[in-house]
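Q: Mind making up any chain with structure tokens?
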Amino acid sequence: MIYGDVGKWDGLRKCGQDLDACKPVVRLAQAAARFGDAAAFNQRIMYGSDWFMNVVDGQWQRYPEQVAHALAGMGLDRLFYQNAIDCFGLGPDGKRRSAVANHLGQLPAWLV
């Protein structure tokens, strides 16, 4: 499966009130239409920024909030959490979940 990451897509920061005119949102909608199933497409997009990449930008602290505003229609739980859990096999039946627990001695609270 292929997943997409919007963690460093600066165009999302510029999306104002008219999200229908926001180029990144339009591009994602076009890709979802081409994919043929917007709900399935939305299960493959995630936010996964690297802090060290964003910290060089001004107002980097606001970036997740700006992404959430621009992509709220995609389902924020999937965008910020569940899609990454699925991608990396960390769900209850995920292949990597037990490896994380073994490495850390327990599962982190956010993964339980």
